[in-house]
Design goal:
The protein is mainly α and 189 residues long. Helices cover 74% and strands 0% of the residues. It has 9 helices and no strands.
Length: 189
């Protein structure tokens, strides 16, 4: 008698991106404490062997997680906004997209950076990249020289990061309102 074919669909392999996305979700929900191998395996229902098939260890996982965060929370936004013609429209779109990001991931990544030098290095690079992009947009507007554009970018970015720290439960609408207030008060609208 021939073997019967299974009627269930083949199981999809839990890919590297699945582990990294799960890590961002765990970071948002549980902070750095949610990033242990045991916690991640419980969250995914996968084995330690599955985890170690993708990562050399926790340090490797954290480095790849921080790089994944940088790609999703910085480079993707910069890529989407770079296609817009006018600097003011790029800034508006950037701030709309940034307001939709889960601030708990940003907060968690910064807490993680306090205890992991590799993550801290990536956070510093992300901060520098974001501020440089903002400064470029301000300078491209023709209304600011390079020094003033850098200063305004640093102030805006400090407000963005700081608001996440002092108002961790703020909604996307709250973040958009803060940006509008910032622009109004700096007479940019």
């Amino acid at each position: 008698m021939a073997a019967m074919a299974s009627s269930s669909p083949p199981r999809k392999r839990f890919a590297l991106a699945d582990w990294l996305n799960t890590g961002l979700q765990a970071l948002a929900e549980a902070g750095p404490a949610g990033l242990t191998v045991e916690a991640l395996c419980m969250r995914t229902g996968k084995t330690r062997g599955s985890f170690y098939a993708h990562f050399d260890g926790t340090e490797d996982f954290l480095a790849q997680l921080a790089a994944h965060w940088r790609a999703l929370f910085t480079e993707t936004l910069i890529g989407k906004t770079s296609a817009v013609a006018r600097p003011s429209e790029r800034l508006d779109l950037l701030n709309q997209l940034a307001a939709r990001l889960d601030p708990r991931v940003e907060q968690g990544m910064r807490r993680l950076a306090a205890s992991d030098a590799g993550v801290a290095e990536i956070c510093h690079a992300v901060d520098a990249r974001r501020m440089a992009f903002l400064a470029h947009q301000y300078q491209a507007s023709g209304k600011f020289n390079a020094a003033d554009a850098r200063a305004l970018a640093q102030i805006e970015y400090a407000a963005f990061v700081g608001f996440q720290q002092i108002a961790p439960q703020a909604s996307a609408a709250d973040m958009r309102q803060l940006y509008q207030d910032f622009m109004r008060l700096t007479q940019r609208i």
